[in-house]
Amino acid sequence: MAQPSSSQGQLVRSLGLFSAFILTVSSVIGSGVYKKVAPMAAELHSADLVLMAWILAGLITLCGALSNAEVAGLLADSGGEFVYFRKLYNRFFAFLFGWTTFTVIRSAAVASIAYVFSQSFNALVPLPVLPAEWATISIGGVFTPFDNFGVKVLTVALIMALSYNNYIGLKFGEGLSKAVLIIVVFSIVMIVILGLTMGGGSLETFQTPSINFQPRSWLSASFIQSMFAALLGAFWAYEGWSATGYIGGEIKNPNRNLPLALVSGVMFVMVVYLCINFTYLYILPVDQIIASKTSQNTIAAVAVVRHFLGEQGAFFIAILILLTTFGCTNTTLLGPPRLYYAMAKDGMFFKAASYIHPKYNTPSKAIWIQAVWSSILVFSGSFDQLTDMLIFAAFIFYGATTLGVFVLRRKMPDVPRPYKAWGYPVVPAIFILFCIALIVVTLIGKPREALIGLALMCSGLPFYWYWSRQERKQA
């Protein structure tokens, strides 16, 4: 790593294995654990199929983590996949990933998670709304910036407050994530125990499909499209597991600790998700779960807990969602500025992002650049539109990272590997094939979200041309 100038600080390796594990888990467990069961049920109309989607998404995510951990262990540094792609492929592909992360993947994730925080707050304290003539204004028939205005304003306020939290230091943000995660996991365990013992649910409830359920062949085009649409929701809930790679330059012994944190973190999250979603579907009939999707600010988990613990239970789960999304927003904001810092140092991002604060040793200007763009995305669309868009874009690059396992085995066969991908070459190949399938099915089934994601990805091309030209002039 280049020596910093005297006018700025430097990144410090301060995080151990447990801290990296905590950051992995807290980057993942956010709004999806409470909210995504409803749109998934609306696609599949059957509780057992919904649970199957959670299991399939967890296994596919685990295949990705098992594969990508080999690349992370071999090439660990601040910047995550940007560093990997620059060494695996070329400078342009690394830029395309970094730009897409900025415009779509991580910034939309920040906007989406913070949005659910504000929705949950709105359930406790109703936020102001604009008159209908303002709320219905749309841009191009796609974006409705003034709809749900009070929720969106609070979302932006949260993003700005937590960006300041990460601005003043990584350890402070990591400590906050750890404290929140412990409370959240304990509370989820209590919901599962209370729900299964006194929630009034039954296996009959779980096994009863929606009144709109129609038996279909698993090989039929309509079933495959519905399953992939449901998987987009589940993958949003698992999204964030790779973000720990962005802070590889601040993890102690990263070649060992980074892959261990990735794999163990995903396995832990998968167990948590299966338990809590089985509890939802065990307590409430699937049609009632689906009904919670129709209201703009209704969250499925709140409806379930209200069913067996009344309004006091609903208040408790609303507070829990506030804590969870608060912690996850904080962690999601934490990693990506390290990527923008790495890009700026390489002349492929706004120059200001390469600045490290001399007192706090954080990429302070990159943090604020991310905060501003995430806030703009808050006003651009709905929660589900944002999450579907970012998952589509994310899986393009997840597949590329996993392909890197094969590339590195050929390019660097004799380099010691602290971790080797389990099940190689079958597991990485399965994950790559699934990434391709998800991209194709999303283009067919949700073209609007996919095309918006592609447009934002391609918006970086003029910037790449300009920054490359500037670098050639300076050479």
Mean pLDDT: 84
Residue runs with pLDDT of under 50 for 5 or more positions = 1-6
What share of residues is helical? over 70%
Please tell me the CATH architecture by its name: Up-down Bundle
CATH superfamily: Amino acid/polyamine transporter I
Main beta sheet = none
Q: How many discrete domains? A: 1
- Elements, N to C (H/E): HHHHHHHHHHHHHHHHHHHH
Q: Could you give the distance between the termini?
A: 20 Å
Question: What is the third-level CATH name, the topology?
Answer: Amino acid/polyamine transporter I
Work out the strand percent: under 5%
Structural summary, described in words:
The protein has 475 residues and is mostly helical. It has one domain (17-474): Amino acid/polyamine transporter I (Up-down Bundle), CATH 1.20.1740. The protein has 20 helices and no strands. Helix 17 runs antiparallel to helix 18 (426-445). The longest helix has 35 residues, at 300-334. It is globular and about 70 Å long. The chain starts with 16 loop residues before the first helix and ends with a helix. Residues 1-6 have low confidence and may be disordered. GO terms for molecular function: L-amino acid transmembrane transporter activity. It holds the Pfam family AA_permease_2. It is found in: Membrane. Keywords: Membrane, Transmembrane, Transmembrane helix. It is a multi-pass membrane protein.
Brief write-up:
One of its GO terms (molecular function) is L-amino acid transmembrane transporter activity. By secondary structure, the protein is mainly α.
